[in-house]
Amino acid sequence: MKILIVTQGYYPGQKYGGPPVSIKNFCDLMVQSIEVFIITLNHDLGDSQVYQSIAQGWNILGNCSVMYLQDKCFNRNTFEREICMLKPDVIYLQSLFQQCVLPVTMIAKKMNLKLLLAPRGELCSGAMKKKYKKLPYIFLLRMLGLTRKIAFQSTSPEETNDIVKYFGVQSNVYYLENIPSKPRTEYNQRFKESGVARIIFISRIVEKKNLLYALICLQSVTEGDVVFDVFGSIEDEGYWEKCLKASDKLSPNIKFTYRGELAHDDVQNVMSNYDVFILPTYSENYGHVIAEALSVSVPVIISNTTPWNCVNEERAGWAIPLDNRNGFVDAINNIISMNNSQYVILSRNAKTLFENSSRYEKLKEKYLFALKQIVKN
């Protein structure tokens, strides 16, 4: 089976967030069963510099073939030419709102090709705040008849409801969970001293990820020896300025450091040097970075707007409503006060939760079955 993915961003880019991780994990999981081809842009998000060490035409990158295009070539004519040459069994789109979606769906309709579209959380309430921009576009897709034969990928029951709400296509929705990154076999083992905590935030510096909220919570933490390190690309300078002003109000017991951008391949290794991962995000379709924290036995302090609310009952961390700021402060203080024997239990629970939620062979079977059904139908 041959799958073509058309997406604006893929590796070696580091600023496109979770979708490239989802694509790479899909390629790695399915390598023995399908051929994956990817058409994408030749530069990172917000950059004009072309990736180094890429050639014209198709490049072999890991377990897939990738064609990198200039912006001016990332258009319908190129897509149609390559689709005609490749003759994919399924075209797999990674967004509802990327610029490639409309031309690719029109090509698929014209050539009667099978198309699977993954909204990646773009229809959830947190992401649909600016409906006045997005609803006319959804209406256009429906009026042009472009969504009638599209198969949609949902990664949660909530996302299934969102797809049905906006597109009314319940029979064409396939529930396929996100594929987590496989954990490293070796990572740093931490000794937790009571009264000390190393806290890490890894995500893009934008309002949605809510770093400012984490800093405001930390302003109320006045005891203990705390390190708070932040990794991620600064995509919103105005928001980052607000974060810096909030960091100036931290108590002297908290050492705040911005560590810059972090390559995805380094996330697990870096994460394993810390006691807890914090992400009070407004919403996550999956939250790859949460899964990667758990995979290296790092407990999490997160909002209850992700699929990982089970950390509460599994005692692998805290999933807390954003309107409960005291709950975040209490969780941070709880981590600070823990001694090693208490922390080891929490850490083991994190690892166990990840292992129980990531059954790779079952995921592979589900994806293969769904893709075969899409081709058949």
Automatic annotation (TrEMBL):
GO terms for molecular function: glycosyltransferase activity. It comes from the Bacteria. One of its GO terms (biological process) is lipopolysaccharide biosynthetic process. Transmembrane segments: none annotated. Residues 192-351 form the Glycosyl transferase family domain. InterPro entries: Glyco_trans_1. Keywords: Transferase. The keyword Coiled coil does not apply. This is Glycosyltransferase. The lineage of its organism: Bacteria, Pseudomonadati, Spirochaetota, Spirochaetia, Spirochaetales.
